[in-house]
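Reopening: structure tokens for the adenosine-5'-diphosphate complex, inputs below.
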Amino acid sequence: MTPNELTEAFTAVYGEAPDGVWAAPGRVNLIGEHTDYNDGFVLPIALPHAARAAVRLRADDRLRLHSAQGDGGVVELTADQVRPGAVPGWARYPAGVVWALRDAGHPVGGADIHFDSDVPTGAGLSSSAALECVVAVAYNDLWDLGLGRVELGLLAQRAENVFVGVPCGAMDQLASTCCEAGRAMFLDTRTLTARQLPVDLAAAGLRLLVVDTRVKHDLADGAYAERRSGCEKAAGLLGLPALRDLGPAGLPAALDALPDEGLRALTRHVVTENARVEAAVEAMLAGDPAALGPILTAGHASLRDDFRVSCDETDLVVETAVAAGALGARMTGGGFGGSVIALVAEADAEHVAAAVTAAFTAAGYATPRVFTALAAQGARRLA
Ligand code: ADP
Ligand code: MG
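Re-run output (same inputs, fresh job):
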């Protein structure tokens, strides 16, 4: 959908033209899963898929929210209603950002907003962060707040943590606000320093396939919170601020010191996963993106066997893709469904995609959605 189409749709809903149009992308994380809430490393790229928003400021402090992917109605909220726990449904995500801005001391008023997003929802591609971040950048521009990309991402994260009630780390929102076209972002989630690394897979004859399994198992949210608290418990028992503070050299002694296998497995994943991010960065800096392949597959094994957040569907995609010639593959996102990424030689891309689709049909699963990921631009004004 073009900015003009968004402007027209906005006008059809609200009867006046918007002040402008903004976009904020979804993301895929190349490697570094479940590390962001352990102060660790991540390596996401922004997707061309984005939440777009046409926005018009209001003279009062009301919010009116409408989404092309919503139930058709306009959600109207008074300033008083914009507080944690008071907003139901999808409107929590955008309203939460306005709340987070006000809570941080920015006296922002109301707005009419029309959203249209092509980020698949619940697919582990961060449609929620896209929806939040597009509001954050639009408000930053319209209210001249002068906030930086990192601050905007952190405000959006706070909206999701406190207003929506999802205890996510900072990766999704920071990827949506900070990623750059043609680059992967190596982010240290403790220091919030980012290094933008050129990622030109096409020049290396490679492609990154994203397979959206279209499943999301119910236990995803509870399991996420449980893994997170397990990691915090392990760090506490080891006397560390976070599992990030444990390097591969200290891992064997730390595993000996932990009282049960569950905590040992969580710790092993986080430590080895941070090392895999660093290895991936090395590979990219060395101009050898093909070396990412085995790193991805090792990351999947760790998520499956140690962190235990994969599921039959994502395991099937990884196994099938690798058997069909992918250089490597892994689940991406929180787990229990969602999407898988596969690094493939350009010449094998169609064959791998077809093999995965055939395996899903044979297993009786719904047809997955497969597309090629390109590293796109982070949140921005379109018109
Ligand atoms: P993910 O972020 O992986 O896509 P989440 O469960 O975190 O999955 O967020 C999905 C939720 O975000 C949806 O259920 C919906 O409430 C909201 N959402 C995302 N995009 C839109 C949209 N375009 N319109 C309305 N709600 C949306
Ligand atoms: Mg989300």
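The first helix runs from residue 3 to 14. The chain has two domains: 3-197, 200-372. Marking as resolved unless the reporter disagrees.
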